Amino acid sequence: MDKKHRKIFWPFSFLYHGIIHLRNLAFDKKIFRSASFDLPVICIGNLSVGGTGKSPMVEYLVKILYERYKVATLSRGYKRKTKGFYIADENTTTPDIGDEPMQFYRKFRDITVAVDEDRVMGIPKILNDRPETEIIILDDAFQHRQVAAGLNILLTACNNLYTKDFLLPAGSLRDEKKSSRRADIIIVTKCNKNLSQQQRQNIIEELNPGNTQKVFFTTVKYGTPYSLFQDESRDLNIDDSVLLITGIADPKLIEMLLDSKVLLKKTLRFKDHHLYNESDIKKIKEEFSKMNSSRKIILTTEKDATRLSSFKNHLKDLPVFVLPMAHQFLFDEEMSFQREVSRYVEEAKN
């Protein structure tokens, strides 16, 4: 948003700031209470409205923890068609729990994946239904202070640091910048993989973390695309033509990847968490048919794949591939991050 248009929204941002400030003050002064639980609770979140890589970070934590502990994830279940508490099982669909929780469930069948708009009520329900649970990971819950997590991990995108952003609607922040002080760990995501030590230091100085706050840096690591409906995978090739389907907050990195990897790319952008319908599928098929190439594919994100999979009968004969992504830590600090997480878990369990 340019400065001219941002000025129009300043009055609304000031009003929003007043509301958020009073709410945070009420929690700080113990007027509003935060619930604590007798097991490790890790919160993943951000200060902005999206696009920092929360879901891949939840998956990263699950990967490093689930072989040693009984792990559960708890999300709101944005845009799901159910209400209240819900635990995923083999009959669960994306409309039941939302796209991101469905993504967790498909990848990690040995963990508990639950959704509840009320995290305070959701945690006891997980412990009642799955009493063996040892760790709960809260997805996108940093601003939901009703639960006092033991370890708060705050994400911020390298190209849009919260320190340089503005509150809604003039910017993309949904919480005060000073709320970052509640984080135990700050992760700067979506960095250039060649980020220099000087750039790293400049960003740390910009964030100005507290004495006990740890700052880490990650870049996006894309995996080999795999077929949505077939047991098949394939590398991207310079001769490929790709129809990219995205319903995520920020597809720019994927578009940049394709610009450097394939011959031709066309993007169909939908809103974040877009619920696809038959009209959308028809448009996808029409756009794909227009591409004049013998090496053409449809490519989408893992989050979009959970929503597109319900249209298998319409898409199963097309080459629909899914592009996996993950966080890759920079500056050889992955083990240091894992030690921070493990230290918290062990201390919280004892």
Automatic annotation (TrEMBL):
It comes from the Bacteria. It holds the Pfam family LpxK. Keywords: ATP-binding, Kinase, Lipid A biosynthesis, Lipid biosynthesis, Lipid metabolism, Nucleotide-binding, Transferase. GO terms for biological process: lipid A biosynthetic process; lipopolysaccharide core region biosynthetic process. Pathway: Glycolipid biosynthesis; lipid IV(A) biosynthesis; lipid IV(A) from (3R)-3-hydroxytetradecanoyl-[acyl-carrier-protein] and UDP-N-acetyl-alpha-D-glucosamine: step 6/6. It catalyses: a lipid A disaccharide + ATP = a lipid IVA + ADP + H(+). Its EC number is 2.7.1.130. GO terms for molecular function: ATP binding; lipid-A 4'-kinase activity. Transfers the gamma-phosphate of ATP to the 4'-position of a tetraacyldisaccharide 1-phosphate intermediate (termed DS-1-P) to form tetraacyldisaccharide 1,4'-bis-phosphate (lipid IVA). NCBIfam families: lpxK (TIGR00682). Belongs to the LpxK family. This is Tetraacyldisaccharide 4'-kinase. It comes from Hanamia caeni. The lineage of its organism: Bacteria, Pseudomonadati, Bacteroidota, Chitinophagia, Chitinophagales.
